[in-house]
Specification:
CATH superfamily: Ureidoglycolate hydrolase
InterPro entries: RmlC_Cupin_sf, Ureidogly_lyase, Ureidoglycolate_lyase_dom_sf
Protein name: Ureidoglycolate hydrolase
Mean pLDDT: 90
CATH architecture: Sandwich
Number of domains: 1
Catalytic activity: (S)-ureidoglycolate = urea + glyoxylate
CATH class: Mainly Beta
Structural class: mainly beta
CATH topology: Jelly Rolls
Subunit structure: Homodimer.
Helix content: under 10%
GO molecular function: ureidoglycolate hydrolase activity; ureidoglycolate lyase activity
Strand order of the largest sheet: 3-12-9-15-4-5-6
Largest sheet: 7 strands, antiparallel
Radius of gyration: 17 Å
Number of helices: 1
Length: 226
């Protein structure tokens, strides 16, 4: 458990245990600006699929990989199933926090830049992302409020310029494909509740941009200019 965040209930950090308390340290220089686009069926191609009915959407489960030349026996390797639960998001002062009830995960997912007020959240500083090789993950907003998703296409040789922020208007949810780099979502409002489900194995592969590249990501929280 972390205790470094003033005025924040102690949260377990994201899967890689990155610490956002030093986000304003000048040693990182200027954060890397992430572009933002509107989330549409077209722009989301390759990243995942739009979800309009949470109950009818099945989690995409990846069959267990084989290590040799012999194939999996049909119908095996994908029976881990799925788990579901609410995903709760809340801005607490300058920090964005998230609670994933499906996997009992408590996260601090970002911090506001020094020149951004909690009353006018235009950007968030982020240093970590992860992907799930075992399956997809579904997010569905209960109140149809806008949110931002930070995503990158598959590949362990991830670069800062691979990240894209998607602005969702709240009229639909989203299922990310397996292997898609992502963070928990960023609500535009003070707090938000999402219905969530994902593969029960919950394998996680993590990148920490502050450690690997010496940079934080600067993620926009406002819609792209037309």
């Amino acid at each position: 458990m972390i205790t470094k965040y003033p005025d924040v209930t102690p949260f377990r950090i994201m899967s890689g245990y990155a610490d956002h308390s030093d986000a304003l340290d000048p040693k990182y220089g200027d954060p890397f600006p992430v572009p933002i686009v509107m989330a549409t069926e077209e722009t989301l191609k390759g990243y995942g699929t739009i979800v309009t009915n949470f109950d009818e959407t099945k989690v995409e489960i990846t069959p267990w990989p084989v290590k040799g030349w012999r194939p999996l026996f049909p119908g095996t390797g994908d029976r881990g199933g799925e788990i579901s639960g609410e995903f709760l998001y809340k801005w607490t002062g300058e920090y964005c926090t998230a609670l994933n009830k499906a996997v009992d995960g408590d996260y601090v997912t970002g911090r506001l830049p020094g020149n951004v007020s909690p009353n006018n959240r235009s950007h968030v500083l982020v240093r970590e992302a992860n992907y799930h090789p075992d399956g997809g993950q579904v997010f569905f907003p209960t109140k149809k409020e806008p949110f931002v998703a930070l995503l990158a296409l598959p590949g362990d040789d991830i670069k800062l310029e691979d990240f894209v922020a998607f602005y969702f208007d709240g009229s639909f949810g989203f299922q990310i494909h397996a292997d898609i780099w992502h963070q928990p979502l960023y609500p535009v409002s003070d707090e938000a509740v999402f219905l969530g489900k994902q593969g029960a194995v919950h394998a996680c592969v993590v990148v920490d941009t502050a450690k690997e590249f010496g940079k934080y990501l600067l993620v926009p929280l406002t819609p792209p200019e037309k």
